[in-house]
């Protein structure tokens, strides 16, 4: 029984839907939309830990697909996957140094829906929503409704790209670009295929991790038809996020020629140990994914309780370096506004 469906569907209808459908759209519509529903599913008493059950108070809705909840350990209020998505009372604390627009992206927003901050690559906000809501998200206060790519804005963004041949790579981001329907995503990629100066289309997404069935045959066909190099930068924070369903889907992506990379956010009490990160690197490698970035948390209001200090991060990273092959070592980075690239913190090793 999936409690979240109770309001909208009869249990029998639900059963039939779940058995017959591996449609990602159906699964997405059925995601847990409140903390108490997820906790009931996980057999965790709402009184455990300092969980905040009034999601509305945070201004950032609750959203967790069943496929992600299935990777969590039942009965464990400190499960590292649960802690990434559960609302906690600390979100309401106001901490100095934490802001609503920590990256100051407003300065690099030449046309709505496009962020052009680094010389050769630009980022398109392909869709404002995500399949999961991560409580540490640096875009949790982003004015997405003003940034959605409506047809007129898309054509303005495409023109901007065409007029700048120095841009050879487009990053589809958001929110999450895989929130787009298959038809819309195909249309967008077709548009980019037609821009000769582009060599690479990069897709920044967490959706496959929380909803593996999003890697459907329509998407694979769109990718296979593209004349550009396609890179997926996944967002996986903990080895437990890599289950068999995801591994199978990643193999399908590899089979159509996609390069698979991963970025991780360093999060307190979730993955802030060299051992956990080592296991993550190894498991990524086993599934054909290379670690790319290990990000320090962006100082967004409501996420301070996830922060790992820069000095602790460097220490953890150095221990990781001593434990994995060089190609399984992510670059430790932080986003500092107004710099021409992300800032590497991993060149400060002593001795
Ligand atoms: C992170 C980011 C990119 C990509 O940077 P890479 O270092 O190439 O991964 C591009 N544009 C924006 C606005 C970004 O924040
Ligand atoms: S998937 Fe990415 S953009 Fe979406 S809520 Fe999570 S961290 Fe934020």
Automatic annotation (TrEMBL):
It comes from the Bacteria. Keywords: 4Fe-4S, Iron, Iron-sulfur, Isomerase, Metal-binding, Pyridoxal phosphate, S-adenosyl-L-methionine. Residues 116-339 form the Radical SAM core domain. PROSITE patterns: RADICAL_SAM. The keyword Metal-binding applies. SUPFAM superfamilies: Radical SAM enzymes (SSF102114). Its cofactor is pyridoxal 5'-phosphate; [4Fe-4S] cluster. The keyword Hydrolase does not apply. InterPro entries: Aldolase_TIM (IPR013785), EpmB (IPR022462), Lys_aminomutase/Glu_NH3_mut (IPR003739), rSAM (IPR007197), rSAM_sf (IPR058240). It catalyses: L-lysine = D-beta-lysine. NCBIfam families: EFP_modif_epmB, KamA family radical SAM protein. Belongs to the radical SAM superfamily. KamA family. This is L-lysine 2,3-aminomutase. It comes from Reinekea marina. The lineage of its organism: Bacteria, Pseudomonadati, Pseudomonadota, Gammaproteobacteria, Oceanospirillales. The gene is epmB.
């Amino acid at each position: 029984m999936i409690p979240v469906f109770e309001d909208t569907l009869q249990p029998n209808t639900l059963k039939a839907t779940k058995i017959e459908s591996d449609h990602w759209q159906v699964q997405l519509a059925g995601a847990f939309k409140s903390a108490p529903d997820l906790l009931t599913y996980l057999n965790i008493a709402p009184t455990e830990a300092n969980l905040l059950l009034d999601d509305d108070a945070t201004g950032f809705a609750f959203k967790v697909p069943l496929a992600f909840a299935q990777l969590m350990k039942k009965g464990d209020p400190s499960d590292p996957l649960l802690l990434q998505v559960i609302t906690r009372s600390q979100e309401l604390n106001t901490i100095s140094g934490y802001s609503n627009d920590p990256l100051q992206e407003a300065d690099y927003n030449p046309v709505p829906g496009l962020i052009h901050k680094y010389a050769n690559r630009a980022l398109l906000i392909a869709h404002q929503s995500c399949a999961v809501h991560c409580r540490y998200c640096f875009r949790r206060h982003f004015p997405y409704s003003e940034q959605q790519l409506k047809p007129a804005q898309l054509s303005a963004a495409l023109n901007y790209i065409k007029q700048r041949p120095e841009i050879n790579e487009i990053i589809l981001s958001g929110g999450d670009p895989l929130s787009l329907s298959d038809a819309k995503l195909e249309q967008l990629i077709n548009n980019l295929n037609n821009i000769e100066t582009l060599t690479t289309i990069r897709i920044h997404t967490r959706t496959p991790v929380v909803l593996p069935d999003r890697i459907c045959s329509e998407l694979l066909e769109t990718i296979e038809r593209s004349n550009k190099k396609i890179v997926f930068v996944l967002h996986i924070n903990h080895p437990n996020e890599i289950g068999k369903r995801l591994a199978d889907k990643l193999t399908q992506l590899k089979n159509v020629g996609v390069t698979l990379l991963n970025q991780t956010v360093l999060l307190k009490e979730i993955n802030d140990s060299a051992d956990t990160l080592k296991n993550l690197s190894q498991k990524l490698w086993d599934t054909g994914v290379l670690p790319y970035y290990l990000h320090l948390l962006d100082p967004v209001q409501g996420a301070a309780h996830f922060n790992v200090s820069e000095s602790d991060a460097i220490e953890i990273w150095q221990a990781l370096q001593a434990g994995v092959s060089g190609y399984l070592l992510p670059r430790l980075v932080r986003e500092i506004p107004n710099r021409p690239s992300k800032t590497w913190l991993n060149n400060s090793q002593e001795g």
